[in-house]
Specification:
The protein is an alpha/beta fold. The protein has 10 helices and 13 strands. Helix 9 (220-236) packs across helix 10 (282-313). The longest helix is centred in the C-terminal third of the chain and has 32 residues, at 282-313. The radius of gyration is 19 Å and the shape is globular.
């Protein structure tokens, strides 16, 4: 292979991620020429619309996957939280590098913690997952829709007269903006999105050469954690339209702890659970936790949300 073509979105964070992969591969394979191909996705175009309204997962990956299948690029780089649980035929996530901080963070001009925010404080976020959990913790807060890349959201903190915004720690840290963080939000208060903080390196299954190059970037504990989270999500059949969260962590002794939840849109109902098992059985663990939550009332929450969505469409 003379050149490897990496497909990526054009946002500053996406380009950081693509350049990180390119530099990591270049160090391991100095002879390999690696280029970046910028691809605009539907999610990049719909900057002022809630992801839950326009399809959620898949909005940031579909066009890149089409280029990968057509052979115009050799590798696609995604944030795993954006990747649908069902991949197109012929593609797979070949490598998942070591996960960055999976937590959400509070960013505020005047307040250091969630607890310090005044009653009725306005919080910028378009994530239904964050909305449900934050309202469960602080029912008095007012949630304001917020879209855009990291820098855009930071600017809107001031221009929209918000008291705070909530973002993923991983993006803030990768963009060298950690100085803006007021408080990392405990996962006991706000579990992250499935795959948050992890990158997914997607390739064609039959591209043996590219798959061989990328194998050095795979981090097995992260892969097993993400497999458990995605199995959990797949069994629940959810996406951005439903407040679903999960976090898997693998200990040094090879045990995987998976925590997950399903919440109502207003945060009044949160069905939580936790299971532990061998990391090698990540898929089974994710499915089992989903079944546990469904049996304890998550099925009713999901049904109410989906029936409400259908009613609005009609």
């Amino acid at each position: 292979m003379k050149e490897m073509r990496i497909g990526t979105r054009g946002s500053p964070l996406a380009l950081w991620q693509a350049n990180w992969v390119r530099e990591s591969l270049s160090k391991a394979y100095p002879q390999l020429r690696i280029s970046l191909v910028r691809i605009t996705t539907k999610g990049d175009k719909l900057v002022d619309v809630s992801l839950a309204r326009v399809g959620g997962k898949g909005l940031f990956v579909k066009e890149i996957e089409e280029n990968l299948l057509a052979g115009r690029i050799d590798l696609a780089i995604h944030s795993m939280k954006d990747v649908p649980v069902q991949l197109p035929k012929g593609l797979h996530i070949q490598s998942i590098p070591h996960r960055e901080d999976s937590r959400d963070v509070l960013i505020s001009k005047d307040y250091l913690t969630l607890e310090e925010l005044p009653r009725g404080a306005k919080i910028g976020t378009s994530s239904l997952r964050r909305r449900a959990q934050l309202l469960s913790y602080r029912p008095d807060l007012i949630m304001v829709p917020l879209r855009g890349n990291v820098h855009t959201r930071l600017a809107k903190l001031k221009t929209m007269d918000l008291d705070a915004i909530v973002l993923a720690a991983a993006g803030i840290k990768r963009m060298k903006l950690a100085g803006n963080i007021s408080q990392p939000i405990s996962t006991k208060v706000c579990l992250p999105a499935i795959g948050q903080g992890a990158l997914g390196l997607e390739t064609r299954i039959d591209d043996d050469e590219v798959n061989r190059y990328l194998s050095i970037l795979d981090h097995e504990p992260t892969r097993q954690s993400i497999r458990a989270e995605r199995a959990f999500l797949r069994r629940l059949g959810g996406g951005c339209q439903v407040p679903i969260a999960a976090l898997g962590t693998v200990s040094d002794d090879g045990m995987l702890v998976l925590r997950g939840l399903v919440g109502s849109l207003d945060g009044r109902k949160l069905i939580k659970g936790m299971m532990e098992g061998e990391a090698g059985k990540a898929l089974e663990l994710g499915m089992a936790l989903a079944e546990n939550l469904l049996s304890r009332g998550a099925d009713e929450i999901l049904r109410e949300i989906y029936e409400g969505e259908i009613a609005r469409e009609l």
